[in-house]
Every structure is written in C-alpha cells, then in structure tokens.
Specification:
The protein has 174 residues and is α+β, with helices and mostly antiparallel strands. It contains 5 helices and 5 strands; from the N terminus they run αβββββαααα. The longest helix is centred in the first third of the chain and has 17 residues.
Length: 174
C-alpha cells in the first residue's frame, strides 16, 4: 500500500483497504477525541469494487476547523505531516514518507459544503454501479496519461466529480 509522492498508479480494489481505514480511524479517534464528530472512509478506496490509488483517504469532521489547532502538534511529527498550503476549508494531513505515502486525512467542518460534497459523492458511487464503472474507466485513462503528474490527474477528474455531485443532490431532492 502507498505511492511515491506525485505518481499515479491505479490498482484493483483491495478489501484490505477497509481494514487499513479502521486501523487508522482508531488512531485518529484517540488523537482527536471528542473534537471529531465523524471519521469517514472516503475516496475511491472506500467504494467496494472500484480500482484506486493505494492510498487511504479519510475525512475527519470537526464542528469548527479552528479546533484542529488543539491537536495540530500531534501531526507535525513522523509518520504525519500537515500540508502547509492546505485549502481554507480543509486541512490536509499526509501519512507516510515521500516515497510511500499511505494515507491522506482531510480535516473539514461537519457542516461545510466540501464535507457534504465528499460524502454524497462517495455514497452515490457506492449506490450506482454504472457511475462507479464510468469513474473507474476515467481514472484508468487519466492514470496512463498522467502517471507522473498527480496534480493533472486529480484536476482532470473534477468535471466528472462535479457532475456526479449535482446528480446526487438532485436525486436527494436538494
């Protein structure tokens, strides 16, 4: 499990990804304590049957993003690192060395659009096999094209992801 920073490699779905999530969730629950209102397995490794980069994405939902300051020091030492230029609505914590990044921990506010979009996208793919297969095809195509450029790989998926999020909200009547 894991990838060198900046590279893209898609692997067949691996049931061990779920086990890896639960191990990390336990550690994160100890670190965040009652600050975390939810700890969710997100990203492609959280969708059974979906090929993915072998990196576990986890969402940690806080009532207020500022609450992260109370635990930040615990993520400033190995095996963790906080991405210094994290987005204003998300703090990204990376786990693993640069030659083998294993986890991305996305800290977000529970009521933020970003958190809600992340969860609704995951749930839609879990529920709609056709959309999951389309997304898998796109990911494989982009992984070949951008094997050494993860930023382009990621940004090239945005239009598809945005369309799925719109469909998911429409399906929910939102």
């Amino acid at each position: 499990m894991g990838l060198k920073v900046g590279t893209v490699k898609i692997e067949k779905y691996n049931p061990n990804w779920e086990l890896e999530f639960y191990k990390e969730k336990e550690d994160l629950a100890k670190i965040f304590g009652n600050l975390a209102t939810e700890i969710e397995h997100i990203g492609s490794t959280s969708v059974k049957g979906l090929s993915a980069k072998p990196i576990i994405d986890i969402a940690v939902a806080l009532k207020k993003l500022d609450d992260f300051e109370k635990v930040k020091e615990k993520f400033q030492k190995e095996p963790y690192s906080v991405k210094e230029d994290s987005d204003e609505d998300e703090i990204l914590i990376r786990k693993g060395a640069e030659d083998n990044r294993t986890h991305f921990i996305h800290v977000m506010e529970i009521n933020s659009k970003r958190y809600k979009d992340t969860i609704i996208f995951r749930n839609y793919l879990r529920k709609h096999e056709e959309a999951m297969k389309e997304y898998e095809s796109l990911k494989k195509e982009l992984a070949k094209k951008y094997a050494d450029n993860r930023k382009m790989y990621t940004s090239s998926k945005n239009e598809y992801i945005d369309n799925i999020i719109k469909k998911a909200y429409k399906e929910k009547g939102v």
